[in-house]
Design brief:
The protein is of the alpha/beta class and about 280 residues long. The protein is built from ten helices and eight strands. Strands 1, 2, 3, 4, 5, 6, 7 and 8 form an eight-stranded mixed β-sheet that branches. It starts with 7 loop residues before the first strand and ends with a helix.
């Protein structure tokens, strides 16, 4: 699906269970303050943003997504060992060239011993909460080819199911196995860009929510991608965690104990930023 010069794009990035909690707080805070997220002509989701973007596009309310974080009903155990983290860093930081960096990460993911793909699918289905069919509103799900490093965006026109696309977008390298789709192997959509704002190119108004502004490795940040869209004539509103939210999140983005406080921090940040966001989104 190509960009629409008169359209609006809602871009939701990844960030593990804790980053996802912040994202839901932001969405609920914006919606409660009068920002109409339903205006989006397309929702573009990456990793955790693919999960919550799918649920949003399938009709689940931002307030519902947020409250499930507060009550612990959407928790997922993402167990990342120290060895996995070190291998991830070794692969992603082993080259200053973005293309080589992401291909190194892909090779490491393909060679890693991981749980069976069925565990990824089970976790994704649980987190999607019934949002398992492509919705009528336009939805694009980002994933990265483990061999070439290419970013692709699956949508309703692709010959894959929504659960397959989201599983590919969430396939954290070395933690979950690459997902086989359409003859290719796919890893987490945030492997080279945590939010993939470049996929909103051509849309006139863009609202991007990025729990982690930068991927590990020599890749453009969400801020740099937003600046590129702005230079091309788009009106862009980009939110990433402020100081209070970062304190709530901590360093371990898999720490479920931090989820409720992080969600509340996202809600507060969005409430404070809503008027500025609305100037872009409702213009």
């Amino acid at each position: 699906m190509s960009g629409n010069s008169s359209g609006t794009a809602l871009v939701l990035g990844g960030g593990g269970p804790v980053g996802g909690a912040w994202l839901t707080g932001v969405l609920a805070g914006l919606a409660d303050a009068g920002v109409d997220l339903g205006r989006a002509d397309v929702v573009i989701g990456t990793s955790g943003g693919a999960i919550f973007g799918s649920r949003l596009a399938c009709g689940q309310a931002p307030r519902e997504l947020y409250e499930r974080q507060l009550t612990g009903d959407d928790l997922v155990d993402l167990n990342v060992t120290t060895a996995q983290a070190l291998r991830f860093l070794w692969a992603a930081l082993g080259s200053r060239d973005p293309e080589r960096s992401v291909r190194r990460l892909g090779r490491a993911a393909l060679a890693a011993r991981t749980p069976p793909a069925s565990e990824t699918y089970d976790a994704v289905r649980e987190l999607l909460r019934g949002a398992t069919d492509w919705p009528a509103p336009a939805l694009r799900i980002a994933a990265v080819d483990a061999v070439t490093g290419e970013v692709a965006a699956f949508d309703a026109d692709a010959k894959v199911g929504l659960v397959d696309a989201v599983a590919a977008s969430c396939a954290v390298p070395l933690v979950w196995p690459p997902v086989a789709l359409d003859g290719r192997r796919w890893i987490d959509g945030g492997s080279r860009s945590t939010a993939n704002l470049q996929l909103a190119r051509g849309y006139r108004r863009v609202l991007a929510v990025a729990p982690i502004p930068s991927a590990v490795g020599p890749h453009p940040s969400a801020q740099q991608q937003a600046a590129a869209l702005t230079a091309e004539g788009a009106a862009v509103s980009l939110l990433w965690p402020d100081r209070t939210a970062r304190r709530a999140m901590g360093r371990d983005l898999t720490a479920n104990a931090r989820v409720p406080a992080t969600a509340r921090a996202g809600f507060a940040q969005a409430t404070a930023a809503a008027a500025e966001v609305a100037e872009v989104w409702h213009s």
